[in-house]
Amino acid sequence: MNPDALAIFWPFGIFISMLFIIGLYCVLATFNLVRALIGLELLIKAVTLLLVVAGYISNNLALAQALVITLIVIEVVVMAVAMGIVLGIHSHNSSLDLRKLKNLKG
Predict the structure, then answer these.
(1) What's this model's pTM, rounded to 2 decimal places?
(2) One CATH from 1.10.287.3510, 1.10.8.60, 3.40.50.720, 1.10.357.140 for 3-96
(3) In 3-state terms, what secondary structure has residue 81?
(4) I need a labelling partner for 12 at 20 to 30 A (CA). Which of 73, 98, 104, 106 fits?
(5) What percent of the chain has pLDDT over 90?
(6) Angle of CA points 56, 65, 61, to nearest 5°
């Protein structure tokens, strides 16, 4: 690990933590399903950026890139399925509000 890598880590570390906090806030503080998916997307992007920075700092960038590509593929599948579920809920309920999902009980 070189000393230049630690100097690069601090700005990225602050940005990653801010991005993670914003994504967590979007997931926890909203009742809109699309906003919750956007927050989940921000959380995953923060983890992706953290993997790239950690790979650069540890001089193991090839492993980090392989992990990031795998994470991106999994993320696309999860987001496609989640958006399909959200669209199904919207077509059945005519709303994206989580508080109105109580009407769907058995």
Answers:
(1) 0.87
(2) 1.10.287.3510
(3) helix
(4) 73
(5) 72
(6) 30
